[in-house]
Design brief:
Largest interface: A-B, 60 and 60 residues
Structural class of chain A: alpha/beta
Oligomer: homodimer
Number of strands of chain A: 13
Strand order of the largest sheet of chain A: 5-4-1-8-9-10-11-12-13
Radius of gyration of chain A: 19 Å
Helix content of chain A: 25-40%
Shape of chain A: globular
Number of helices of chain A: 12
Largest sheet of chain A: 9 strands, mixed
Order of helices and strands of chain A: EEEHEHEEEHEHEHHEHHEEEHHHH
Chain lengths: 314, 314
């Protein structure tokens, strides 16, 4: 089993009420790769500049991520993002975005990356996502996007959505994309476009899964110490798709139980992501810690029904 | 087992994108009473005007709600609220509030209401909540409030919170009351004030429960047809406390399993509430429908962990 991800590979400068970091390793492909690496072999695709050094590559390789398809543009500069968060950690305020080498990026997948079982199209321009998708024969293709592309390149995004099996968006973006105020109806509208799986990410409130069979909802793992939410959505996607690929689930064959467990693993990986700045926490994470939190998560979200005695008045 | 509730008994005029109703039966004590009536005997306390007629009393009595302590003020007018909702059903826009008989209300509990096991102080002025609380020897007292009282009568509200066992607030209001951005820390700050149980209501996203033992989170029951969210929080509280009283749970003795089931019943009652305008849906509700949705809710929110095969890369 192997999984290919295309997305941003970045330097992020982030300030939250709990601290700040300058030019730390980030980007959707990075957060996704590290999370998925606990479950399967991950091949990362994307461009970096000459300023992307051995230290950055080492973080990915330490988790076994295949970096052959990370294209280093000599003389170019790596994608850069600067943002801050106020007390509402659900909202990132972007202060600066420099596309740099991403502005000229033309994805070229190696044979190994073309033939993985799962492909994740991280949040980049929809036309780039489509060109990657056309090169890859994965049996499960998932796509993330954002309000920017819904507003500025809507037609290209709709075409990209029509070519994938699974759409993963924030709930507000799902409503925006489909112009449906109700989340369940929005998910159904997406399924009418092609995808058979829709995941609505709901920030600290968790996530919801929609398939032809029905829906499944999971709350967020409650934490007392959230330091930096950057990358939480990509870590969720990495845990979700990494788990599915690791157990060899096929898109048509993924059982309901497998998809639910994938949602739980996604939530667990996202919860570790936000405990530290950037990739700090996930870099030191172990599979045992993941399994322990999964058990804890189940304990914190499950209830048992039991016959209730008849009430005196009824 | 019996339960006393004090709160508003109202006529509500509500418009949502899905329709509108003029002067329908509403108010926190009404929504709460109907929801709790499926589990235990409920005694409603509050004032109404001469305009409150047999039709309105009949709705409560049809569900077995004891109305002896509903004080009818001849010549007075019943509390009135007019509001509308846009596509974001999480936000009510109040257009008019007329306190009417509530402006002069001096609660007087009958002996039967003083001696119930559970007391719910619905969202009214904190000083009124305190005067009711002082008259009642319930072993489990819960309180709801709102941003208005946090802003305008903060000291009285803090005193009221210090006198109850359970605080039930929206998550934003919990953060506002405690000035803590993190929900888990906000809940702990409330427990330092006295209550041993804190319930954070999160609208369509569900609810979270905090006790000395830890926390529990439950997503909202996803619906394709939400018509009017008015009263959902009170129906949640009615299902939650009604269930606890129905099984004879004591505040110190309520088991973790009982509290979780109470959260699930609260969510189920809230989900029925929002399917119709005002009390329309709950008026026709049956216990069998509640149990069927509880089973469905469990199915839609539970996952099973299972050992995962070692990934090839780790």
């Amino acid at each position: 089993m192997a999984l290919t991800v295309v997305g941003s590979i970045a330097f992020d400068s982030v300030r939250t009420p709990f601290g700040e970091r300058d030019r730390m390793l980030g980007g959707s492909a990075v957060h996704f790769s590290l999370a998925a690496s606990f479950f399967t072999t991950v091949r990362a695709v994307g461009p970096v500049g000459g300023d992307f050094g051995e230290d950055e590559f080492a973080v990915l390789r330490a988790r076994g991520v295949e970096t052959d398809d990370i294209e280093q543009v000599e003389g170019g500069e790596t994608f850069f993002w600067r943002a801050h968060y106020g007390h509402d950690l659900n909202v990132a305020h972007t202060d600066d975005t420099q596309l740099n080498v991403f502005g000229e990026f033309e994805p070229k997948l190696s044979p190994a990356s073309r033939h993985t079982e799962v492909l994740f199209l991280g949040n980049i321009q929809p036309e780039l996502q489509r060109r990657v998708r056309a090169q890859c024969d994965a049996h499960l293709v998932a796509l993330d996007s954002m309000n920017l592309w819904i507003e500025t390149t809507r037609q290209a995004l709709l075409a990209a959505v029509g070519e994938v099996d699974c759409l993963m968006l924030n709930d507000a973006e799902l409503r925006m994309l489909t112009e449906e105020a109700n989340l369940a109806r929005a998910a159904r509208a997406v399924m009418d476009m092609g995808p058979s799986i829709v995941v609505a990410k709901r920030g600290e409130y968790g996530a919801a899964l929609f398939t032809g069979e029905g829906f499944f909802a999971i709350p967020g793992y409650l934490l007392e110490d959230v330091r930096d939410p950057t990358g939480a959505g990509d870590s969720f996607a990495g845990g979700f798709l990494g788990y599915l690929d690791g157990v060899g689930a096929e898109v048509a064959g993924a059982s309901d139980a497998e998809l639910r467990r994938a949602m739980a693993y996604g939530s667990v990986l996202a919860s570790f992501n936000v405990e530290g700045f950037g990739t700090e926490r996930v870099q030191t994470l172990t599979r045992d810690e993941i399994e322990a939190r999964l058990r804890d998560f189940k304990r914190l979200t499950h209830f048992e029904e039991q016959p209730v005695p008849d009430s005196p008045s009824r």
